[in-house]
């Protein structure tokens, strides 16, 4: 396997370090300046960070496989802490059956039926936040929204839903390297996985939710019942942290850009595009992984077989080659080519549900709130694999 190491572009950047994650966007710009494909010697992985190569990698599943695992762990070489996802961590043709079943339960009709419930919950949360005025926005307003509407939609009982967040920490923590923090979290893996496993059983789900829909697909012969259960697990893995973090970051972006908030407040119909722009500008999913299936040359670099490739979708969203003034948050921007949900066959399967959550949340806020004022510093939640806020202190003022 001849590798032209002399031509290899190497960097000591560590995208999982606290320093990088505290300010990823300036680091992305420095990475982009090094060229389209860079070897990160700290982790022995490749990284791509321009919009063009990010799209190429994400739409080339034959050479950039998902069977090597969704995180930094290379399943071609090591075992993961949990059974791989049967939709994220698998290639066609096996992937497609699972994907089709998920797409069917997340149909436009199913989403339409969710809207009224989402609106009720968002309206109540915004009302009670306005009542209080001074809030810790993550805890009081943002987190309770997905934590209510998502498990409701899946068909979960009301009890103990917070355990989903511990599990989410393990799932997304596994996207990054092993750290003492992560080992500590994983010490509870058996107990937490058992809880999640029990919640994925058919008998634990209401008969009308997304989970029941997957079991119905199994009854119809589209999946096995064991596969239906694992797809419910995918919902519980990827469905809450992602939207909590994206809504939180969008709320912060609006509070930090009073001119943009004023536009939204005066025209709540901008909510959907505002959330889409936030998904480009600053949102929960900054990075994904692929693993090469063979040795080949890509964008001037010689990749080897079974090498990990970090795909910085958050950097693609700031690439000046495709975005005018990429660092400006502009809720009226035409943003349809943003890749914050990924793209290609593994593009977020529930992205229309995530958009519905964002739209409904920010519409509810824009319809009722006049001012958003930050009352202290926001604090990042430094979980590898996701970007989000732990704290966002704010004062909300009601519309006259
Ligand atoms: C899954 C899964 C877990 C985490 C993320 C994800 C981004 C999927 O279990 O299928 O998609």
Explained architecture:
The chain is an alpha+beta fold and 400 residues long. Helices cover 47% and strands 12% of the residues. The chain has one domain: Cytochrome P450 (Cytochrome p450), CATH 1.10.630.10. Strands 1-2-3-9-6-4 form a 6-stranded mixed sheet, with helices on both faces. A hairpin with a 4-residue loop joins strand 2 and strand 3. Helix 8 crosses helix 10. The structure holds 3-methoxybenzoic acid. 3-methoxybenzoic acid binds next to helix 12.
Kindly estimate the percentage of residues that lie in beta strands according to DSSP: 5-15%
**DSSP strand tally:** 13
Compute the number of structural domains.
Answer: 1
Which ions and ligands are bound to the chains?
3-methoxybenzoic acid
Describe the structure using short key phrases:
12% strand, six-stranded mixed sheet, binds 3-methoxybenzoic acid, Cytochrome p450, alpha+beta, three-stranded antiparallel sheet, 400 residues
